[in-house]
């Protein structure tokens, strides 16, 4: 069999392999992916190896430094900081992923509807402008203050606060995604393949789902990675202000809040969660940069 014949019968290469090949050329994205996977492995697998309860109080081990028994030391109540860092990372990243999913769903839905249906464009964009004009931090603080007690009673202290923070962050961070997706849809709906599908009578919902939405996945995925970083920072800020999870429910922001009173005596208690937040946010941002380049057909293949 000749090479020409083999090339003819060889199945077409999956597009995602091309995306991965382009992604691998972005060194910062590879480093970010490695760091993010390492952090995920630590917070998911670490508790299976390190069995100390992050909420266990041992007054005899208060304010201990680094040691074999407590590699990252203990806090003012004798709680193991390594266990609390791993538990806090699981909560913070869970908040980031869940809030990002809600934000992307809202932003993509509103962006597609506004871009494709002209009669909805004005109303949805005015709604987007309204949310963009709102002061987000005071709005978040107001939502947490008003709904924390009712949700805590209905879903428990941890479940209620998790639901509240995820909803508050997701409901106030979808606007940029909506604007980006709307712009992409406005350009796509005038393309030849969309006009051809419309000319043969393809229903609007099928045209959106099969032709429009798959072609706007690139900006949606990039917005998703950046949304994770933004949600983690917002949750950390709320917890640092004392408006996040309960004191016995660790997050990286809560660890910062608990340690700020003793920052001069035990600075590593602030440095450690600060480094964890910074590394996670930076790694996710670099992954987003790599995805942006890899998913752009104008750059892919260079």
TrEMBL record:
Keyword Membrane assigned: yes
Swiss-Prot/TrEMBL keywords: Cell membrane, Membrane, Transmembrane, Transmembrane helix, Transport
GO biological process, one term: transmembrane transport
Protein name: Oligopeptide ABC transporter, permease protein OppC-1
Magnesium is among the record's keywords: no
Residue intervals passing through the bilayer: 30-50, 91-117, 129-147, 159-181, 220-245, 265-288
ABC transmembrane type-1 domain ranges (all copies): 89-288
Gene Ontology CC terms, in alphabetical order: plasma membrane
Signal peptide: none
Gene: oppC1
Gene3D superfamilies: MetI-like (1.10.3720.10)
